[in-house]
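A protein record pairs a chain with a discrete description of its three-dimensional fold. The following entry can be read in just this way:
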Amino acid sequence: MSDCGFNNRFDKVSNFSDHSLIAQLEENIKAYLDHSFLCIGGYTNAVTGTLYNNNATSAQISTSIEPSGYRTKYWETTYKDWVHETGITYNSGSPISVSGITVNNIFLPSPTGSGSYGYSLDYPNGKITFDNPIPTTSKVSMEYSYKKCQVYKSSTCDWWGEFKNAIYSDLPNEYSINLPAIVIEPDIRNNMKPYQLGSRSFFYDQDMLIYIFANSAIERNNITDMIRSQKEITLNTYDINSVIADNAYPINFNGSVNNNGQSYLSLIQNYPGDDLFIKNVDIMALESYSKEIFWCILRLTTETIL
């Protein structure tokens, strides 16, 4: 007789490596926020030759890794989290799809370049890595769009623990994230109650904390109101385990676009997960750090039937 019979193993769990409820919530809330911000114009187009204040949205790509006269593989844009999503339209406009980069007036088509100028694109981190180092004096540019509000999962942010502790004291210079930004973090508050008689299904209430960081109180307040107005809506979700198994996730592990990846709307249609009900949204804190960083903490109480 097998030692893994029905009554001798975990219920509702089939694979040790699968993403469970909390991971599914974190993933789907991020995907929902990313998609929703883009649908209301939450992106900026950076076009070569366009002038911007302080080069804030310039398409010029720079490197600070090595001093002038050296060569490096690693280049980056001022703003990260490039828009990889397609099919987005707002006010008759759309985000720019990256068609390639220009190095010293030579156009190199994406996603891999050509010849001795091969490269890879890291969309979340806003970086280009060349196969071979090029002089730091090179002029590298690219037309692209970046997301106005960057959304992070706390589980994948190696900097989050130290950053969260530092906001109440002194923020070191190495904590340079583009603002506004959001970090999603699971909270310890949760609850389970039976769904119906004769069933092993439950209502799972799980609280998720939404940290909002901005350059101004107005920007922080606007994003806060956008999110808390989603109280009592039901979100369609996708099952991240099925998505990964089918190689349908839109971004590869190295930040490049997955040619087999699917859009957010396609994922929730083709790999449906459990519906996510936003039961309640509370403001826990409205703070500022030296009038330079303004932040808010929202508590989302989510409900899922499993």
